[in-house]
Design goal:
With 209 residues, this protein is α+β, with helices and mostly antiparallel strands. It is built from seven helices and seven strands.
Length: 209
């Protein structure tokens, strides 16, 4: 059931309940469901805004290696708590893309958020940055803790997750938002699924010197 349905149900129970301990239990459930509904609403609003293209963009020269390494540094506590081992590979020479730094990192952050939720505990996460000539490729690979039983195309659809039968704190909109954010920066976003291996690929225009 959706959080809204649960909220309506528990409000109905709360109106009739006389036992104070049960009332407190219902209030806790209502608090959890309302927070879940807020996440869904916020993500839906962001997805609609991103897909419409109505987000101001400030495309500029961005050092993609610095952006990724600094961003991972800020997430260090979360990375340690996840017990995942991050491996990052990139060329020695500086690589620059034309992008909006804030929106680009938001897209990457959505992918990392999925990894923190769904990656196999104790596994490795590979982040590779490659120079393809006219484009820079950022690829992120991880092993899912759950069986990825649908295709990459289905996984990209809104409200879809790798395993449709499991409950999750995510909205299922993360991949859709990431794709829309990359699209409005004139980049390309693709995913691949191979068994339990999930791979996201972001192609960004290389900055012309």
């Amino acid at each position: 059931r959706t959080p809204l349905t649960a909220i309506i149900t528990y409000v109905g129970l709360l109106k009739k309940e006389k036992d104070s301990s049960r009332i407190q239990e219902y209030i806790e459930v209502l608090d959890q469901r309302s927070q879940r509904l807020k996440v869904l609403t916020d993500d839906l609003f962001e997805a609609a805004k991103a897909s419409s293209g109505n987000i101001p963009t400030n495309l500029e020269k961005i050092n993609i290696v610095s952006l990724i390494t600094q961003g991972l540094g800020e997430l260090n506590d979360k990375i340690e708590a996840s017990q995942l081992e991050f491996k990052i590979n990139y060329p020695k020479d500086s690589l620059y893309i034309t992008a909006d730094g804030r929106l680009f990192w938001r897209a990457v952050e959505n992918l990392l958020s999925n990894i923190f939720k769904y990656a196999l505990q104790g596994s490795r996460v590979y982040i590779d940055i490659e120079d393809l000539g006219t484009e820079i490729l950022l690829s992120i690979k991880n092993i899912s803790a759950y069986e990825l039983n649908i295709s990459a195309d289905e996984l990209m659809e809104r409200f879809k997750r790798g395993d449709e039968s499991r409950s999750s704190q995510g909205s299922g909109l993360g991949l859709s938002i990431a794709k829309s954010l990359i699209d409005i920066q004139k980049g390309r976003f693709n995913i691949q699924v191979d068994g339990d291996l999930f791979k996201a690929m972001i192609y960004m225009p290389k900055h012309n010197q």
